Structures are given as C-alpha cells and as structure tokens.
Amino acid sequence: MTSKPRVWISRPTFPEVIARLEPHFEVTAEAEERRFSPAELAAKLAGQDAAVVGLKDRIGAAEIAGAHRLRIVANLGVGYDNLDLDALSGAGIAASNTADVLNESVADYAWALLLGAARRMTAAERWLRAGQWHATEFKAWLGADVRGRILGILGMGRIGQAIAHRAVGFGMPVLYHNRSPLPEATERACHARFVDKAQLLRESDFLVLVLPLTPQTRHAIGAPELALMKPTAMLVNVARGGIVDDRALAAALRERRLAGAALDVFEGEPALYPGLLELDNVVLSPHIASATTETRRAMTSVAVDNVLALFGHGPHAGRPPTILNPSVLDK
Ligand code: 8YV
What we know:
Elements: E1 6-9, H1 15-18, E2 26-29, H2 38-45, E3 50-53, H3 61-64, E4 72-75, H4 85-90, E5 94-96, H5 103-118, H6 121-129, E6 151-154, H7 158-167, E7 174-177, H8 184-190, E8 192-194, H9 197-203, E9 206-209, H10 223-228, E10 234-237, H11 246-254, E11 260-263, H12 274-277, E12 282-284, H13 293-310
Parallel strand pairs: 1-2, 1-3, 3-4, 4-5, 6-7, 6-9, 7-8, 9-10, 10-11, 11-12
Helix pairs in contact: 5-7
Bound molecules: 2-keto-D-gluconic acid (8YV).
C-alpha cells in the first residue's frame, strides 16, 4: 500500500474543514498559531507534499530548498506578499490564495473603520473606560458626518468594488484610482468615477486603501502623497502595512495635516510605529478585517479545495480554483 501524501497546516483552524483532507492526506496541523523562523519553516516544509499557510509564514527559495516533495502552498489570505511566487513557480510548486470569499467582510470592516474614525468611536470609548464620563462634565465628542463627503478608493479590485457598493447607502460619491479603469458597466454599478492618483488624493474626504503590496505599491502613501490630502481628510488602510509610510503618517496626524486615520495593517506588524500609539486621532486594529467565523471558515475551505484539486480530488479535481501560478500545471 502506498502511503498518503502529507499536508502541513501552519495554524489551528476549523477541524470540520480540515477533515475534508483526511481521507486523502496525512494531516499535521500546528496546535498553536505562531511566527516560525525561516529555519523552522524549512524544517516544517521538508517532507510535505502540500502546505496551508498564512501571512506570518514567509515562504521563499530558502524555505523550499529542502522541500523536494512539495507541490502546493495554499495561502490563507487574498494577499500573498508572504510568498515568493517566482521561487515557487521556479520549483514547480503551485500557490493559491483565497480570493473573493473575504470581499464582503473586508468591505464591512473598512466601513466600520471609516465610521469609527469619523465619529471618534475608539477615543470616546477609551475616555469612557477611563472613568472620565462624569455627569457634570461635558465633552462634545464632535465627529464628522460622512453623507455628501467624497469616498476615495485606491485599488479598485473586488474588495474595492464591495466597499463602493456600500457608499450608496451612506450617500457618498465615489472616486477611485486603479492601474486601469474598470469597464464602464462595472463603474456604473459601483457609482464610481476613475481619476488619477493626484486628483484622488486631493479630493477624497475619506481615502480607503485596498491595493496589494508589491515593490511598486510600497509607500504608495508617503509624505508627498499625504501633503496632497485635505487637512480634514481621513485615511483607512485595510490592505497592507507597507503601502503606507507609517512614520510620515504619524507626523501628518500629529501635526493635524491629516484629520484622522483608521488602520488595520501596519508596516512590520505586529510591531507598530510608536508614534501611532501616542495619537488620539487614529483607530488601531490588529489586522482583523477578514476575521469573521463565516469568512475565515470559507477561506480555509478554499485553501483545502485548492490542495484537494491539485491532487485530483473534489469538485475542482485537477484545477485548483484560485491558483496564482497556473503555468506550473502545464509542467
Ligand atoms: C489575512 C489578509 O490573510 O486576506 C488577506 O490578504 O490580510 C487577511 O485575510 C488573515 O490574517 C489570515 O492570515
């Protein structure tokens, strides 16, 4: 009897979803979520036929050098800047992400952050928890209305579009910038208008970042871009930390050259640029935009579908549904 292929899962996750692998694979799932060193990752991957990993697991040439049996790395996330796709493709290893299933929860959370920043929700809660709400004391907590203000979206993929759809209910006109404009019908459906990046920066009252982190988008929002924004504007980041220069952002917020920000992601997270922690006009959130039970279960399910498919099982047999480097399938 030939032994089953092996799959390694880098974190504890939904057992009922992982159980779908068990008829076909020998499954090893880590009991705790933690950050593995490159050497630990290399040791974990050696001898595996498949791996299900997350953003904390940075996988490149060194980590796969001894993984001679590895055929697929399924990433639990739509963003895959933790994977060196060239190295994986070069080694004939498939890579997949979890596109689409998280669009709605990330869009909901972008709005939660936007409204939280506009209405100073977390600062007000800190004040209340600190016992400062005395019956005799008046503090206005005046926020900003969103109705009629311009929502800017930088990066108009499927999550950006889901964010734009919600703007109708809040009465906000939408401007966006993207590598290329959307087809007209999609633009109409999102009630969104394409503008160049400088115009987006100048005109947005709330600017939401939803673009992938690549060498080209690193520090897409730095000091020169922040200088173009209105002093009354607010920035929301649900994409990746490295897209914003956190030092420049902290300076702009401190000097009130920018009214506020709401950030779910940070350069070098889980460490935060210390200047951000000192500010009251920023909502800070620990990278949880996709973190609902339903969405995280769906993300795990997509990762499992990709692994099963690569090994010829399940409804997508032979065609991993969200493969990032389909050319490896031809090899
Ligand atoms: C994370 C995300 O992947 O999908 C993404 O790109 O940033 C998140 O959904 C999540 O933290 C799981 O690692």
